[in-house]
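Q: Here's a chain of 850 amino acids. Please give me its 3D structure as tokens.
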Amino acid sequence: MNGEPPGPGRGTPEIEPERTPPGQIGVETTLDADPHAAREPGRDPHHPTLDSGPGEWIGPYRLLQLLGEGGFGAVYLAEQTEPVRRQVALKVIKPGMDSQQVLARFEQERQALALMDHAGIAKVFDAGTTASGRPFFAMELVRGEPITQYCDRQRLPIRERLELFAQVCSAVQHAHTKGIIHRDIKPSNVLVSNQEGEPLAKVIDFGIVKAMAGHLTDRTFFTEHRQLIGTPEYMSPEQAEGSLDIDTRTDVYALGVLLYELLTGTLPFDPKSLRVAAYGEILRIIREVEPPRPSTRLSRSVATIAGVAASRATESAKLAATLRGELDWIVMKSLEKDRQRRYETPNSLAMDVRRHLAGEVVLAAPPSTSYRLRKFVRRHRVPVTAASLVLAALLAAVVGIAWQARVARTQAVKAELVADFMSKALSGVGPSVALGRDTTMLREMMSAAAARVEKGELAGAPEAELALRGTIGGIFRDLALYDEATKMLEPAVPLARRLHRGDHDDVATALGDLAKLYSDRGDDQRAEPLYREELAMDGRLHPGDHPSVATDLSNLAGLYDDRGDAKAAEPLARQALAMRRRLFPGDHEDVAESLNNLATVIGGPTGLGDRAGAEVLFREALAMNRRLLPRDHPRIAAGLNNLSVILKDLGRHAEAEAMARESLEIRRRIFPGDHPYVATGLNNLALLIQDGGDLVAPEPLFRESLAMRRRLYPEGHVSVANDLANLARLLLERGDAAAAEPLYREAAALYDRTSGDGFWPTGNARLGLGRALLALSRFAEAEVELLRAQRLLANAPSAPPTRRRQSLEALARLYESWNAATPAHRARAAEWRKQLATLDAATLPAAAQR
């Protein structure tokens, strides 16, 4: 239920003055400071062509203060006087330093910054040459302090440090999308300041960037033999050895060093030892020596760990325990000597950090069965993105089979059977599956595994078969392959009953899996008794308050809400929320989920009409998730979406649209490129704009979503049908029935193939197709589609009454318009009008109660 699931699914503030600690103005400084660098003699400060020290002018910029100085360039705090008045950082080549190499590096930096547009990267405003011909450029003045100093001074806990680190990854990722590799990421090049009460990190100093494709400048940029370009402590092995084949993973390595320092207060390698070593020894250390894990480094630093822990607002023992495990894995994967084994991108590193913060499975985890089992159990307590569900399900398969192998450890034949089965059936699952990008491969792999199960290859290991049926069936269900899912999940229930006489958790799980399948297919009549049996069984197995019972209550409430019976859903949703509040006092993800669910019941499209009450609950859920989760997280995006729907219904359309746009922006940052969750955000925003009466702006959003889903699901998927139907409805409302008709026809055929007649959107697509044909005066074809739509919607228990009403209204209009309404047609129209009046009479009392 959950309003909008976190996975792919359906559908002026007060200005606070920026405070910067004294002496903490951050600037772009490419090279090490040179306090002895010469300056040009001063000139008349009122002459606009002067270009020397503070108080003088470079074009429209008056130099105020020298902020930083390197061997080749200087950075000034400057005031721009026209066409706008503002303070900037002005970088200029120093006199006598205009060699080809220096000019090329300077131009590279300017062009790199000009290419980028990200909140975490300083912007270039202007460029030119001084009166004496030295190049300069003006850029955004970055105020702040190095990220490590900021975090220590603010005593930021580990969670907040990780959230800030994820911001840095986002900025570096943006640079990579523009073809720019930074090559010198370190604390002094990542400055943090407070913006409206929140820390904001900015990556600076793109002085030694590398272009991934083409050239940033037409000048050649050489480095001398054995000259290290970058900072040794943060340098990747391939960068240290001077390789020309530098790619984005060299920045991933530096980010890993930065994360190491944020967590432990120290570096992977001792900087003093590294700095005094000979060139060859530096290379050897960086290329060959494995640094200790963060938790190990802390355990060795008995003398300093108390201070490190204090600056992280925790205790020594707790800090080591926090780092041990997942954070160790994430850091060490970033620092792999072999870049093939590192994270591919800063975004993938940030995603693993966010997974850790959200309690999800991290991709850096070693193949530990117990670890994955714990994570899988936790993940099944809450809705997740469809892509993550697929990954969790695959992990569950590995866990289930490994567990069965241990149970049968005294039976070597069974253990070998299980190991061989898993090796053959689940080999080749990679990150692309987790991102929802390779569903074709996933479907083929699961189909092969299902065939092996059906052949009885696990007959000698029934518990393993039960685990595999649940896993494979769940994946098929997530892919909307309902027939295949049924073949896996229906036999799982009797198999579980044979294995466990009476009440058992495995039986309850099998009942719930099958109930969810039936519910997704729109077959509430078969789903309800299974959900009720699961609830009763869990109640006997776990008397009193228990997470499984709360989940069962939530699932049953969702079933009633989906079919429009909010009065039956409300007490169950309230009971689930009350139980979870008792189980988890304070902030907890399950409590936030229940707040979301209850809000949907009382204020959703088919709810009790209490929009104001729903807004309060949605806001509480969103605030709780913001405290629990990283800033960019699917649940945050879902919460914003849910609020936008309620605010739209309350008539606060501008506020609703702003939230929907923020939700989409989060989705795009979490999942760059094609992803079902991004497509959902596009659809949600388009629907909201359309409901506001704009029939033009939503079209490109709908089309982008549809194109994305077609690439994600080349063999078809129910979400592709949803997108087709949404776009067709927009075109039909706009009066373009000719363009809507083929889209509706494709959607209806896809619904038929993926979902069947019991799924009410199938009837809805046929209704849209019939209405388009009616608008085109193709009456005979319209009659076929509208009669079929009316039959489908009448027999689908979860179909909204409004859709059934629309089908009756459309049939009446058809016969009133056909052949100038012959007597026979008028009689048929009267019959449908009569049925329409009966339906209105039946639904009017319920509507009045709302």
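Q: Can you summarize the key feature?
A: The first strand starts at residue 57 and ends at 58.
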